[in-house]
Amino acid sequence: MIASQNLRAALLSLAFLIVALGLWELSISSQGGSSGELTEYEMLMGISGSGTGVPPPSVIFSHAVEELSRPFYDGGPNDKGIGLQLMYSIARVMAGFSLAVLVAVPLGFVIGMSPVLNKAMNPYIQVLKPISPLAWMPLALFVIKDSGTSAIFVIFICSIWPMLINTAFGVASVKRDWLNVARTLEMSKLRTAFTVILPAAAPTILTGMRISIGISWLVIVAAEMLVGGTGIGYYVWNEWNNLDLASVIFAIIMIGVIGMLLDGMLAQASRLVRYQD
Amino acid sequence: MNKHFLQIESLAKRYPQPGRQADITVFDQVNFQMDRGEFVCIIGHSGCGKSTILNVLAGLDEASDGTVIMDGKEVKGPSLDRGVIFQNHSLLPWLSALDNVCMAVRSRWPGWSRSKVREHAARYLEMVGLKGAEHKKPSQLSGGMRQRVGIARAFAIEPKLLLMDEPFGALDALTRGVIQDELLKIWSRTQQTVFMITHDVDEAILLSDRILLMTNGPEARIAESVKVDIDRPRDRATLHQHPGYYAIRNHLVDFLVNRSRELQGAKIESPRSDAPVQPREVNPVAESGGRPLGPRAVPASA
Question: Which ipTM score applies to this complex?
């Protein structure tokens, strides 16, 4: 039953894809062929004739095959393979995200253990959390003076909040009974933290990490558009400047795929720490 | 005065009442003693503070007044000398049954090797009849099996005093009976000193040497200490045929239905005015002269 359900869902997905791509392809080919005179705008832009609008899926597909056949080539500052650009972005996300883990998890632990600290920190968290990470960019650029590091800082600052809040919540809501067990066993604070509180809060912490990495991946594209140089965000902006829409659309799809993989990795990790009460 | 293993002296618990001057007194003037190897149950209606007394003994809660002295030392904070079996098993759900017990054993004897810890834990799991289920997670065990793991965990650290807070409250009657039997078996083998809270009169008679009866709260007291004068080993199947069984049972039920309310807040008379108020000692079996009593109808107007 479940197998046939999966099969039916897969077939339906495929059908949706074919219909959507088919409509896209058809609408462009019917439009592109009937272009008569050029508009003033098109003449100003130096666009001449057909093949300049939104590219059809077939073009994007052939472009994708070409790009993916040599993803890591490096032909200078503005000519790098899509794989290489994605690697830059992933590296920045990982750097900022890891730093955020190192800060948010221990800090969230302490906040979660102390109701007083929790109340004391709450106003700051509530004010800092809704700030768009990109709003930090000018300040980061000024203070850090390095665009690459600033991008990492922006990732750090946007991914810290969900983890901090979730860790504090997870730690604070560890069952009293479990803590009492640890107390009656005269377990030290440190041992209690690692053998009782951490495993008990791990699923909540992992959920926070999953939210954080999702946000990081959203933010890195915008951050790289600002700082430039390398990365998938820069690539998208650069291809827009080149009016290479096939590359832009291909990059959009790749951003989606990598985001899905990052989320999938953490979903796997949270499966490892999940427990059934 | 001879020294008892456990002495509870004028224990009291009060909570401040919001908006009012006077504190609310859950219980006070709680005095009782326990000897080594004794199995004592405490019965009383909800809200009389039984669990608070147990938590104070465990060191998890603090009394407003009074002292607890165990083995010549005052009880302050939790200790491995006092094992606790919680009402809802309190196993760590991410650990297997064996690892739950191992964690306790390792806390008790930090110097032991890994294999010695496992062997010790496995022995206690076997004692509660869980051989073969050592590697299951609590969620894969039935309610009764989980509580058995809790029992094994508490016995495995070989505490001087074992505290049980309604350990079988969440179990169905059949499972409860089986585990009571197992508890009796382990207890007779280890000669643990046990302090246990229960709501079940029959359970108390089956298991304990003495039953402490509490009046209703607030201002609850321990009014009576009822001796269960029935020889061991006791057998659930034939216990109710024992000549003294109904004498005890009727006494307990009568107390719970009628007198626990009447005595609420009343001062319990003490032989000497300066001596701490002790619960009245009762031995229903001796008082009935060992005559077999039938089940007596107890007025049901409660």
Answer: 0.84
Q: Which domains, from first to last, does chain A contain?
A: 82-273 (1.10.3720.10)
Tell me if the pTM is above 0.90: no
Where do we find the tokens 């280890």? B190
Q: Which of residues 65-124 of B touch A (CB under 8 A)?
A: 78-80, 82-84, 86, 88, 90, 92-94, 103-104, 107-108
- A180 inside 8 A of chain B by CB: yes
Show the domains of chain B with their CATH numbers.
6-81+159-287 (3.40.50.300)
Closest CA to B40 of B172, B171, B177, B214: B214
Quick check: B62 contacting A, CB < 8 Å? no
Q: Which of B60, B78, B94 has its CB closest to that of A186?
A: B78
CA distances from A1 to A4, A5, A8 (A): 5, 6, 10
Classify burial at A246, counting beta carbons within 10 Å of its beta carbon; exposed 0-12, middle 13-18, buried 19 or more.
Answer: buried
From first to last of its 277 residues, chain A has per-residue pLDDT tens of 677 899 999 999 999 999 999 998 888 877 654 445 556 665 566 555 444 578 888 888 898 888 888 888 888 777 888 899 999 999 999 999 999 999 999 999 999 999 999 999 999 999 999 999 999 999 999 999 998 899 999 999 999 999 999 999 999 999 999 999 999 999 999 999 999 999 999 999 999 999 999 999 999 999 999 988 889 999 999 999 988 889 999 999 999 999 999 999 999 999 999 998 8
> Chains A, B: CB contacts under 8 A, how many?
54
**Are B256 and B301 spatial neighbours (Cβ–Cβ below 8 Å)?**
no
